[in-house]
Design brief:
Blueprint (H helix, E strand, L loop, with lengths): L2 H15 L4 H13 L2 H11 L4 H11 L22 H14 L4 H14 L7 H7 L13 E5 L15 E5 H9 L21
Antiparallel strand pairs: 1-2
Protein name: Membrane-bound metal-dependent hydrolase
Length: 198
């Protein structure tokens, strides 16, 4: 739930599409953030806490790694089927075509779901550096994907090739399963000059 990003993108979309109609722009903004209600409902059903302030605190806490001695519960994914674009977008747009006042709301909802899409991260510099091999195990001929050493939400540099590695799915699963925290700069990963994974 990235409420701030959703509301800003929906506001920009609403103002761009409907500069002379504040009501339609407001409907676009509403569509851009209304889908986040499912996060709150799922949190409340799983935790029993119906306080919105508690949900916002949990949202901030759940994005941080657990600390030693942290016994506060984690409720897993708080996404409903409403966050599946292949289900929601056609239904909303078919309804919007049949009932035109819903079109601004459908535009905001579409912007929300577009922001939530996970697109594969492609960085040509990392691919060139790796020469078609996993930078962790050295295997070639398997699908490879770029991963961040330090997530940009936790202070890592988003556009720095030094903060990215090219790993195969097996190495990524191993790193995730062992909950490796890679906090050193790219320095001693096997197969990469001066890379380090802890």
């Amino acid at each position: 739930m990235r409420f701030r990003e959703h509301i800003l993108a929906a506001a920009a979309t609403g103002l761009a599409l409907y500069p002379r109609s504040p009501f339609r722009a407001a409907l676009t903004i509403l569509g851009g953030v209304a889908l986040d209600i499912d996060h709150f409902v799922l949190y409340a059903l799983r935790s029993g806490d119906w306080n919105p302030v508690g949900a916002l605190r949990y949202d901030r806490r759940r994005h941080r790694p657990p600390r030693r001695g942290d016994t506060q519960p984690r409720y897993g994914s708080l996404r409903s089927i409403a966050h599946e674009p292949q289900v929601t977008v056609p239904l909303v747009w078919i309804t919007a075509i049949l009932w035109s006042p819903l079109r601004p709301f459908a535009a905001g909802l579409t912007v929300h779901l577009a922001l939530d899409l996970h697109l594969p991260h492609y960085n040509w510099r990392v691919y060139r550096r790796a020469r078609g091999r996993c930078e962790r195990c050295g295997v070639a001929g398997v699908p490879l994907e770029v991963y961040y050493l330090v997530d940009p939400r936790r202070g890592g540099k988003r556009w720095s090739a030094q903060n990215c590695v090219l790993w195969c799915g097996e190495c990524a699963r191993e790193a995730r399963d062992r909950r490796e925290r890679i906090s050193t700069p790219l320095g001693s990963l096997p197969g990469v000059d001066g890379c380090d994974a802890t």
